[in-house]
Amino acid sequence: MRNTKTSPQIGKKLVDSNQTEQALEDRVQALLAQMTLAEKIGQMCQLNVGDQGVPDEVAQRVRGGTLGSIINVVDVDAVNALQRTAVHDSRLGIPLLVGRDVIHGFKTVMPIPLGQAASWNPDVVREGARIAASEAASHGINWTFAPMVDIARDPRWGRIAESLGEDPMLSSTLGAAMVEGFQGRALAAAGAIAACAKHFVGYGAAESGRDYATTNVPENELHNVHLRPFHAAVDAGVASLMTSFSDIDGVPATANARLVNGVLRDAWGFDGFVVSDWDSIRQLAIHGLTADDRESAYEAAQAGVDMEMQGDAYFEHLHSLVDAGEVALGQVDQAVANILRVKFRLGLFEQATTDTATLRPIADSDARKAAYQVALQGSVLLKNDGGALPLNSNSLKSIAVIGPLADDPYEQMGTWVFDGDAALSVTPLQSLRDAAQGKFDVLYAPGLDSARSRDHGGFEAAVKLAEQADAAVLVIGEDAILSGEAHSRADICLPGAQAELVRRVRGTGKPVIAVVMAGRPLTLGNILDQVDALLYAWHPGTMGGPAIADLLFGVVSPSGKLPVTFPRVVGQIPLYYNHKNTGKPPSDDTIAHIDDIDARAPQTSLGMTAFHLDVHFSPQFPFGFGLSYASFRYSDISVSNPNPAMHEPVVISCQLENTGAVSAEEVAQLYVRDVVGNVTRPVRELKGWQRVRLRPGESTTVEFTLLADDLAFYGRDLKLRTEPGEFHAWIGGSSAAELQTQFCLHA
Ligand code: GLC
Predict the structure, then answer these.
(1) Hey, whose CA ends up nearest to atom 11 of ligand 1?
(2) In this predicted model, what pLDDT tens digit does every residue of 416-449 receive, in sequence order?
(3) Which of 27, 80, 193, 709 is the most buried (most CB within 10 A)?
(4) Active-site residue, from 16, 235, 277, 408
(5) Residue identifier of the C-alpha nearest atom 8 of ligand 1
């Protein structure tokens, strides 16, 4: 049982209500029975079309019925022409799957998924995916390669931007919400597209955060952490999964039968289809798992990979592998059935082409509202000294807006925006000017040509404006190119000369408000003491400007909470809240700092615990952290039954009061620790949250209900179990919550 207010019921299968499962299966089998081996293998192939016109090979193979899917074509007329060729010219008329990376929006761009996760709100995340699907579907796209539900604990990894953060429950709930948003209640409905949970599995554990690097994930971490969001996506009815590029414990995911056939199919009963990542089947030879493409095709087919993305190992070798009896025809039939099943569920056999009259108006008010809401709720206030925020538009005479990202409609969209339309973006500068409406002046100087520029040539003009203004708003951070696929960073500080620009503006003595746009957590230690307030907006997408302006002027109070830990320095990574206790956990009373060590200190212990000499073991900002313009008091925690039996629910509750002066929303979080387990258990695990709106002085009871299943974990035998014993629980506004209770579960 999940907590009572936020998490949707994960576990429903999204199938087209107009077709019973059996009727669907009969259609699949009837079609399969008519297909030649060449046609079957064609369904297992996908080719890139691109924007230079349809390659001859693609057109020929569509006509010949030996290509089941195309990728990267977004001209609806070109897509319709290819669908008509597939349906009318090929022997069996099987329509095409048309794939595209619609990761966080199509034309209207939502915040990057990591920024969406900071909203902790499945409703706004679901709505963002629904809008994205609807805009994409109107261009003939019927399949997206999202949500990415890789657990990401390493901010050096560029793809943390696409992730939903470091926690299995948050990623599970929001990943399922994206599946529901993309796929709707029926895949065949107008505006719905097939989703694809990726990258199965453990991709985020890439060594040193380098993309595509080796991942070695211990079995109990794989089952207790990385697999969980994929299981949630399968339970939410996701139509497809994508295997990752990575080598996982010596067997690349694209050839990993134990995980694909073993876990995904046999254990979880997944009945959609599995697609490789881009050419990841042929890369098995580069990994050194196989000697050539034929062996790679064999390994991937045996593992249960149904479709090859943009590679020709299957097209060139599967036929001979089947003829030689090395790959059973039954395996090919199973793969093709999985693909056909999704095509039937999408309703493609009834309607393969897109009626351009149904083209959803791009970036209509619904789309802008959805993009605004998730940007508003996903922005996190990390610092606000002396009530520097909100800015008072009635008393201000002028503000100086400074920074390379204050007025850049492209960069604010972030990574993975193949189809994002920068012309739709509303920038912070534009929105701050709108907010001024003649009440106060808005002065502007970029200070730097780009976030990576080291040219101080623009500093003087920026500093002069700050000197003239009542306050300075600095919009800084990362260019979109510094995160995303294959864009990892070894150092995650502010790029270029931005920190110097902050220092120079600080030197004017005016209040300094920093707004950071980035695709990852950055190490902020070198500017934190230079600013009075800091709002983390991630890459906020099309409506980033209005959301940021409304937050800066207090139209709405910030309510975002971090979906990922912020380290103090890059050397602390990996650093995450749900870590194990170790046998020698650090604590403040055993830590000395490197500066406190005498030159000739005897080689005695400074505290024989798991810490670094030169930086405190705590994060800069913990998972779940986020400030508000209100203040919230958590008190009177209680547990309904201190000694529950295994079958009895446990209700953990507390009082939550808005002790501030403005109405605001707070994301109250529940964490639990299983003190003793068959395997060591994390010091805390998120077990629920609720977004609560309170007026000044108002208080409410926040209540979470836990069942035995919510406390289950995979033990040494990799069997899921809940064990009796002592549990500690906390409720608060972050993973550092101090309000604690406990209960003892009995068999
Ligand atoms: C990429 C990515 C994957 C994406 C695919 C298609 O290499 O790893 O996430 O969906 O290719 O662009």
Answers:
(1) 278
(2) 999 999 999 999 999 999 999 889 999 999 999 9
(3) 193
(4) 277
(5) 277
